[in-house]
Amino acid sequence: MTSAPAFYIPSPLWGEGRVRGEVRESPRDYARGLRRRQTDAERRLWARLRDRRLLGAKFARQVPIGPYVVDFCCREPRLIVELDGGQHAARADYDAGRTALLQALGYRVLRFWDNEAVRNTDGMLERIAQALSPTHTRPSPRPSPRRGEGEGHTPQLRRGRG
User: Fold this and answer.
1) CA-to-CA distance for 107 and 86, rounded, in angstroms?
2) pTM
3) What topology is assigned to 40-131 in CATH?
């Protein structure tokens, strides 16, 4: 006869937490846990983005958006900054789908590798600042007509001399 252990540890499938990429708790609680367990790269970038330190832009970290939790989000210009560790190299399709959904929700997504955040923080902040600048805003879906091309305007043919 084999002896059974004195205690029982349930499978993660029965509890809360991450199981094979699925979140078994509310996105808000999951995001809160991620904020407590930051990577070195996230900690380093957050120190430079928090308290409106970059161009006065208000960033939040580990923000639930749709079914995902993004690393950093600046809501007003709808900019998301994601830091990808080595595990993302094997998940390129997943990340592409995630980026596509976030873009469909109207966000611009910037992705950086973790090691870039540690080795070249200033260069990364420069690229984020460029994305925040007004010249990087999206073009209007209904741009103003060119001069002379508005409603009620009949094009006139120019006659050359000759």
Assistant:
1) 24
2) 0.64
3) Endonuclease; Chain A (3.40.960)
